[in-house]
Amino acid sequence: MLLSHTPFGWRAQAIGSNTQAARFSGIPLQRYRIVAMTLMGFVAAIAGVMELAFLQSGSPTTGQGYELYVIASAVIGGTALTGGSGSVVGGVLGALLIAVIRNGLVLLEFSAYWSTIVTGVVIIAAVAIGGWVKRQ
User: Of the candidates 46, 51, 14, which has an alpha carbon nearest to the alpha carbon of residue 29?
Assistant: First the structure.
């Protein structure tokens, strides 16, 4: 909503798409970058407070190892690995699919290593299907 319906969102997308074109169109790059990074820091702080409330402890290594699952969620949601645009809805659906796969493997009592292997296979399949659809 913020990215598609506000001038701030349009300018932020312009900066992310083509920095030089955004500069030539008169968008103050430094100001928008600072505001965007400030917003991301604020969202990260909210996530940290929520984690502290949920786990009742804080650790700087809590989210370590989730990078593969985040990338898999984005790729399954429709974001190309070579760059391009995706959607929030696609990312959420990709995250739900990855969560269902991981939970299903736990319920079927597979080893924890299989979760990583299956996630890698799902990423490869999503990239292959995306490339095949793009060629068609």
Answer: 14
